[in-house]
Queue: 2 jobs
Job 1
Amino acid sequence: MNLYSDIYQLLKFNDCVIIPGFGGFIANYSSAKVDFNSQEFFPPSKSIAFNKSLNSNDGLLLNHISKSRNLSWEKAVEEVENFVESVNNSLKNNDVVEFPGLGCFVLNQNVLVFTPFDYNDLLEDSYGLSVFTYPMLKFERKPVFVQTKDKDKKQRKSLRPLVYTLTSAAVLAGLVTLSFHFGLFENQTKNTETAKVVSVENIIKPSITPETTEIAVLPTEEIQEDIIEEEIVESIIEEDFVEPDLTINTNTQSHSVHVIAGVFSSSENAHNLCEKYKSQGFESIILPHNNMYRVSLRSFADTKTAYAELPNLKEKADNQALWVLGE
């Protein structure tokens, strides 16, 4: 009986199929791969291996033959034994035994050698995908030469002397202007033959003459206007700044125990919180201490009364962080 197709079908859903008395096929998942040398793409598949030591009967092949052919167990065992005997006889005759879709067997110096096929259809996820060849794309970059017209070159060459001439003229004009500004050229008589020597200090830092001092002095009316403007700005700043009222209420100065609602390093923040609680009806005051400002929600004569009123004050002020300060 031919069992090639039965073994192939079982390997689609099982990782190992044992042929009792011959050996076992092992199917392992093989991911897709690319052979850059042959430029071939291989889809994912099941790689097949063979182990001659796996020859014990696990019942998988016999159970499949018994159900698919409606045979008894004893008859299925007999069919498998006949198949194994037929394969061994072909191998002893130095024939190549091919298992379709799996690989080939050959007996080499009494050693059983199995050569699997490169590709099979055992993996259903890649069913229908075959090996294909794809040629590698090659790109050749050609150098690009940019040619300029001869007219542009001639125009650029003709502009260079003009640029140099204009630059030299601008430098000379600047030097002449500086010379007149610092008094290097003065009116001289026709008969004078001696040159006037000007010191470097006078060129770099001209001396202060009475004429320059007169120009630097501003009119008295402008000075008075500037002073008046500065006084107006200072008065505006002084009027806009309002120092927060940090005085303690005289009615609560005699009380040495306070329920504190917050401590601030900024007097403005303390003043804002104090005004907030005053608007809610509390006798809030500010207690300055070591450059810090404590905001008291209410003051008491003794700590016992303060702790007794603390839960009620927390609820009314909606502030669970209130605490008692006793001096």
Job 2
Amino acid sequence: MTAIVERHHVIRALLRALRTKKFLILAGLSGTGKTQLARRLAQSAIAVDRQQGSGRGLELLEQSLDNVLGGDESFLFEAIPGRPDFIRVLDVGTGGGRSKAQPLHKMRVGFLPVRPDWTDAKKVWGYYNPLTGRFYPTDALVVLLNAYRDFAENGSDAGNYFLILDEMNLARVEYYFSDLLSLMESGCSVDPDEPRRVRMGEMARIHPLDSMIVSTGQRGIHDQRSEAEAAAAFGTGRKLVSQARTGAIEQMVPLRELDDRRFVYEPLVKGGEFTTRPRAPLAEFDEQRHSIAVLYPIPPRVVYPPNLTIVGTINVDETTHAFAPKVLDRAFVLEFTDVDFEAAFGSHSLWGVVGDTLQELHRLLAPYELHFGYRVAGEMIAYVEQSDGNLSSEVADFLIMSKVLPKLRGTEHRLGAALRSLQALCSERGWNQSERKVARMLAQLEATGFTSYF
């Protein structure tokens, strides 16, 4: 797994940005651990929520960071001996009882890898299939609804929820993300005049019906429903009664079936402006009695709860799209291009074997922004492990050919000086195959003004 190390002031800035605005974009060099960093910080915030019984996870993460820098231990962060500027972000899913990931994490963290063909919001929400009568939600919609229910029921004490969009600029963000961009500007909030009341804010439609729709599970409870019950649940129109008799409407979930949790969904079904929490505590959750756990009903509208955080990761190259100003205006952007192999792998048993080579490659390529990240370095170290821990000329030659040179492509202005420096290094170290490949790339560059590995 990619090593997650970063300068502690960068982690601090990231945490403060997340508390300021619930939309963050992590940009920069591929393989620096942007996605894993987002995952780990999300899981860490949820672990702290679980321990503290509140939604202060993001706030307490910075306190934990300060404690580690002061010499204390934590299951969230780890100091790096000899490198006081760096901190290691730990994976809470691999620790002990306090830190181990719980099923709660799956309910609160949604991971959504973006594809180039995304052109509308259905890719984010999911879709309704009129042939089956069911809605097929994405993880993003499930997490958003979980966050909304938590906020509606608990207000400012609601826990943290996260949506991670991986490679979010492989498609045009303003196309598939437009609904969420609008909802962010006017999300639901606690009414300052009545703490038990939640202002719904702007809504977005996700399916065409005006009722809850089943997404999972078996219906069952409508099998013997009479026409009178169907009329009471769905209205008195002859068409609706006929649909209930034929089973075409069996997948709908009437609000009255949600018992004391109907207040959460009612404004999303009816387009209401407010929802008010009951004065009495909600009844103990009963899977046999409540449809939420069995069927996971999907309302026709959604709002943006303030306890939902969206983190997107991007790479900037010829395969990606630029961001529209309206996207960047709504987000904090952090760039990750600085890598330090010694901070990440200095404690590895093979650092003494591979460290000099990694550092030398970084020294040659970084001035031209052609360097590689922790993922590539980690895989190179792993390959040396499979070679009995011996970085022979043959092994190093293979690693340069397979992990470094394939990513080099461009013009004389971009690659010329870097390739000549790399050719000199290959000649000096006896990496003959790599030296010949670099020579061919330089010849192509001289002949056409452009070169690539392939």
